[in-house]
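To whoever is on call:

I kicked off a structure prediction for a single chain this morning and the downstream step that reads the tokens threw a length-mismatch warning. I double-checked the sequence; it's 110 residues and nothing unusual in it as far as I can see. Pasting both halves so you can look.
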Amino acid sequence: MDQAIIALDLQSQLRDAGYRSVGPATSNAAIRALAARGRIDGAVLDVEGVDFSAAEIADLLAQLRVPFVLLTSGRDIVPADFVGRPTVDKPYPTQELLLALEQAIGRDRA
């Protein structure tokens, strides 16, 4: 239940910043379905917020060429292949998350 509340709060933060949220997606199949409906400009992957392998999801996002930010409570749990990706530690200030997302997407919203 806590993860659902966190996801709703994250969606709200992104909408308030001018993004359109198409998630959350909680499985590889859900991510593929969202990607099939249209381009995904960026993603936020909560490493602890999934009931499956975060590395598997990160691999899929990379395969689909979706830029993403890792959201974690400890950088030691970041999948090894994705160390160096934009990463934000929880709890996070909204502005820090938005800056990391902009970095991942490669656009300047200033």
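Update from on-call: the warning came from a stale cache, not from the record. Cleared it. Sanity check on the structure: The chain has one domain: 2-105.
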